[in-house]
Amino acid sequence: MNNEIISRMVPEVGANPAQIAAVAKLLADGNTIPFIARYRKEAHGNLDEVAIGKIQERLAYYDELTARRETILKTIDEQGKLTDELRAKIESCWQKSALEDLYQPYKPKRRTRAQIAKEKGFEPLADAIWNGEGYDATDEELQYARDIIAERIADDADVRGLVRTAFATRSKVRSEVASPAPKEPTKFEQYYDFEEPITQIPSHRYLAIRRGQKEGVLWVKLELDPEPVLERMLEIVGRDSEQVRLAAEDAYRRLLAPSCEIDVTVEKKMEADRAAVEVFAENLRHLLLAAPLGEKAVLAIDPGIRTGCKVAMMDSTGKYLGKTVIFPQQKPLEAAKAVAMIVAKYHVEAIAVGNGTAGRETEAFVRDTLKKLREQHPEIQTPIVVSVSEAGASVYSASEIARREFPDLDLTVRGAISIGRRLQDPLAELVKVDPKAIGVGQYQHDVHQPLLGAKLDEVVVSCVNGVGVELNTASAPLLERVSGVTPSIAKNIVEYRNEHGKFTSRAELMKVKGLGDKAFEQCAGFLRIRGAENPLDSSAVHPERYGLVARMAADLGMSVKDLVGNPQAAKKIDVRKYVTAEVGEPTLKDIVAELVKPGRDPRAVFEPPKFREDVTKIEDVREGMKLEGVVTNVTAFGAFVDIGVHQDGLVHLSELSDNYVSDPASVVKAGDRIQVTVIGVDRARGRISLSAKSKPSIGGVRGGAAAPRDRQRGPRTTFGPSSGGGFSCNPFAGL
Predict the structure, then answer these.
(1) d(CA 73, CA 269)
(2) Claim to verify: residue 308 and residue 368 sit in the same structural domain
(3) What CATH number is attached to the domain comprising 74?
């Protein structure tokens, strides 16, 4: 690997040359980031996934730059214009924009004013003016000469770099209302007469302005004082006659400012995109790693008014058992009987209620039903009731994955199943949904989609491998996210499991079609087999270290089975005794940690949110109310919080903490439960302003729209609770 590249990457990625070279080699050998981070710590000095990802990103950048450099050198050489001096400049250039500036004079161009002037024979006049020699020319002839000089100045790499840097560091983002002005109020009114230095404008504000521009509401440009730039341009070219100055002004106005403004605008947009993508990725990570309910039988209800509530039953493994429809509004007694019968028949341990339209009303109806059930049948253990986010459920329901899973079921029933499984294991279910549909981002539809897609995929893969996957129950979409497992291999694993039954060992994976030695090396440590003959198969210990664990057990005078899950014995292991050239203390400490708690789930213990039962819609919300809420989305300007009324409230950045906070993510994460106070309600616009301060100031609603839900909201209604009578034991459709 090029030593120059490695040395340049050291300050960029925060790693030393040996670490960078080691990661580069591991990546080149086909290893994945999760595998490198977990099982090759000694090779790269215990870097984490973030650092390894940065190295991979910068390696890609320099690979692209190197390829582009070779193309440019070849093109200029073919033109017969590649001098030794120019070659040296190009070969020593390590920035893409600077490389393109060097190439600018040699790029194929459309017929320019300068080319026309040269064709007319005015290049000698331009040279005379450029060199300060005498000349005799008309105004028209001087204009032709200035066209040549203007292009010569604009093609100078140093001049172009100067102008670009000036726009990037000294310009202001200026926005005005477009003409004709909108007749109706818009969400961009604060930007109708707005300016802010480009170096100070935050990403979310810049993206908001860009969205206003895209929607035709705003006119946006970068403003820059040209005078200091022009003076510096003349210093760079080393000429300052009247005609050269006129040509420089023309070069700036016509050739440099427009293109450099575009360059800087694009770079600023990418910078804002990267910031927004990081916000989305962080939210997604916390959502995916939300505490799972675990292996408990779940009844899922997707609320509905006109068409009724879709009900689906899942066993403790998430297996779909049956469905029905209830109408709590139209037929409350019948609906209550149905819920009670399912709870009794299937020993339901939790009821998941979607948080969409009529979600809180449905939740209240279910709680009332369970209360009556307890009163009449105290011997029946009643389940907990949990509100579950529906975000993305409709997208999953109509997806190819859902059609393959449940080809004979209606979209709404698939949605109910997804809601129930999200409660059991958020990670396993949400990997089936396009992350962009989950609604935890900031301007996610405005950012560069390839950048967003790659980052979100990276987060999903990191989360899946960080938690581990149960081989005998995982779906193909979940298996696809495991290190080394391609979509075709994931499909083959499921087909093998369906044909041969449960896997009994990790070694059996080698019998799966298409899963060779390399894929096994990459994936085996992240796949778990609960109840396997070898207890290490249910842990994060990689099969390549099974022999090492056997030595540890033998040294303690016990079997591997007796050692795994035995904290007292595991803590007696002196890891220094087992250090070799290949295995160091970081890996050995990981192994001992797994022996103490094999296959441990790093996620938190599940605890259901507690919404106030008397606050179910925005009309119930009053200023001064203290509520418990769940953070649904963290943005650069604050956090959105679900307080159980179908409309998330906004805790503005200034209301997140008693102390000053510049980054909301440093205070709260998606999925956090927090105590908030209502400081403002705008029912007309559906906005709720919240504060997490100990002594909030009541009154007024801050800017910012509420976080979008997955589906359009219809008119809300209140279901009447079931009234009187016992519960029938008659069977009903589907369950």
Answers:
(1) 30
(2) yes
(3) 1.10.10.650
Q: How far is CA 182 from the centre of its chain?
A: 34
Q: What is the pLDDT of residues 364-412, one digit of tens each?
A: 999 999 999 999 988 888 899 999 988 888 899 999 999 999 999 999 9
Domain termination site, one of 259, 283, 307: 283
Q: In whole angstroms, what is the distance from residue 472 CA to residue 461 CA?
A: 19
Residues contacting residue 464 through CB under 8 Å, at least 6 positions apart: 427, 431, 478, 481, 482, 526
Task: Annotate 128-156 with b (16+ C-beta within 10 A) or e (fewer).
Answer: bbbeeeeeeeeeebbbbbbbbbbbbbbbb
- Do the domain assignments include residue 520? no
Q: Are 54 and 187 in the same domain?
A: no
Tokens representing 384? Answer: 């907990």
Residues of the domain holding 686? 618-691
Average pLDDT over residues 520-544: 96
Tell me: do 632 and 685 sit in the same domain.
yes
pLDDT of residue 301: 97
The strand ranges marked E within 327-372 are: 350-354
Q: What angle do CA 89, 257, 227 make, to 5 degrees?
A: 100
32 plus 131 within the same structural domain: no
In sequence order, the β-bridge partners of residue 628 are 675
CA Rg, the chain, in Å? 32
CA–CA separation, 674 vs 169, rounded Å?
A: 40
Task: Please list, residue by residue across 280-308, b when 16 or more beta carbons sit within 10 angstroms of its beta carbon and e when fewer do.
Answer: bbbbbbbbbbbebbeebbbbbbbbbbeeb
Residue 136 included in any domain: yes
**Report field, pTM of the whole predicted structure over 0.85:** no
Residue 86 included in any domain: yes
CA triplet 425, 431, 436: central angle to 5 degrees? 125
What CATH number does the domain containing 406 carry? 3.30.420.140
* Domain total of the chain: 4
Does residue 588 lie within any of the structural domains?
no
- In 494-608, the DSSP E strands lie at 527-528
For residue 155, the domain's CATH number is 1.10.3500.10
Angstrom distance (rounded) from CA 723 to CA 445: 47
